[in-house]
Every structure is written in C-alpha cells, then in structure tokens.
Amino acid sequence: MKNIAVLGSGIVGQVLADGFLKHGHSVMRATRQPSKLATWKADAGPRASVGTFADAARFGELVVLAVKGTAAEEAIDLAGPEALAGKTVIDATNPIADEPPVNGVLKFFTGPNESLLERLARRAPDARFVKAFSSVGSVWMVNPDFGGVRPTMFICGDHAGAKREVEAILDAFGWEAEDMGGQEAARAIEPLCMLWCIPGLLHNRWTHAFKLLKK
C-alpha cells in the first residue's frame, strides 16, 4: 500500500481520495483552506490527513492532480516541482474554460495542438505525468457498475513504468486501461471530456462511460 497525495479539495479529489482509502492506501488531501476538509478528515478515518499542496506532494509516493483545469498549473507550482520529481502524477484535469458551453459543448482554453498535460509537464519536467480519470464523471471513477462490463479509461504519458503503475490502479478501480502513447495523446484524450458531457448538458444523462471495442 502507498501514501497517496490528492491535490484538490473538490468532488473529484474527494471521490478519488475515498477510492484510494477504500483500497487500503493512506491519503493526504491538499488544500489552501484546511477547514474545508475538516469534516472529510474526521469521517475518512485514521489513514486520511490534510495538508498544504507542498505537504501533500512531499507525503505522496504517488500524486493525483484533481483540481479545476484553470488552477492546475498553479497547483503544480504550489506543490513544488522538486517534490514531484521522480513520482507518478496522475493528471485527472481537463482544460475547461470559465465560459458557458455552447449547445452542450464545453469550451477549452487549450488549442488542438496542445494539451493541459503537456503544459503541466513543462512546469514539472522531472515528474512522471500520466493522464487518467479525465474522460468520465466523478461518480463513475471508482469501481463503476456497468452490468459486469469494464469501461475503458484512456491513458497516456512518456514514462512506461508510471503508466504501468496507473494501469494497476485502474484495474483495482474496475477499469480497463488503454495506453494511447506519449504525452501528445492527451490532445485527443482531453476532448473526450467534451464528448462525455454533451448528453448530460443537453439531456441530463450522466450515466455512461466509454468502451473501446477490439476484435
């Protein structure tokens, strides 16, 4: 079992933190306002703790970035690139702009030939970033029930060992991992968030996930 740092005090951070606790890990959640997470810490048990971004980055053998996309680069700065060096960092963020969707389609602040993952990797070049958990809603991230069918989680990153580590986590969390290659593949993976959200934003349907069919 590992010490897991979860950077983020929102719902995605909570779901993933609870998932890691459920699977036997110790978790420190990072926040700028510890009082926001006092109730979670009290309810989560003795393997749960709360600290600053720098505290959590030092604590974590593996780090999960689960903040708003607009805050992701600042979160890496607060954690400290040196504290992330050599560690697997699961990037669950998406570059969603602070603008309303158009006909159910979210707006991104990145262009088609860049990704938020690549921006983050430039800020912490010695961290081992792996894109994951970015193409599904938080309610389905940990052990989703789709009638016995494992949905597909698309991942990418430049470090093979880090991707294998994330694949093992995804397997424990009930997912089939599909490795799409290096960091550049995040340019294709991140927009899956747009696609996933369209049925929800247009028709209030949020009970779905992606599945890659192979023959």
Automatic annotation (TrEMBL):
<keyword id="KW-0560">Oxidoreductase</keyword>
<keyword id="KW-0238">DNA-binding</keyword>
<dbReference type="GO" id="GO:0016491">
    <property type="term" value="F:oxidoreductase activity"/>
</dbReference>
<feature type="domain" description="Pyrroline-5-carboxylate reductase catalytic N-terminal">
    <location>
        <begin position="4"/>
        <end position="95"/>
    </location>
</feature>
<dbReference type="GO" id="GO:0003677">
    <property type="term" value="F:DNA binding"/>
</dbReference>
<protein>
    <submittedName>
        <fullName>DNA-binding protein</fullName>
    </submittedName>
</protein>
<dbReference type="InterPro" id="IPR028939">
    <property type="entry name" value="P5C_Rdtase_cat_N"/>
</dbReference>
<dbReference type="InterPro" id="IPR036291">
    <property type="entry name" value="NAD(P)-bd_dom_sf"/>
</dbReference>
<dbReference type="InterPro" id="IPR051267">
    <property type="entry name" value="STEAP_metalloreductase"/>
</dbReference>
<dbReference type="Pfam" id="PF03807">
    <property type="entry name" value="F420_oxidored"/>
</dbReference>
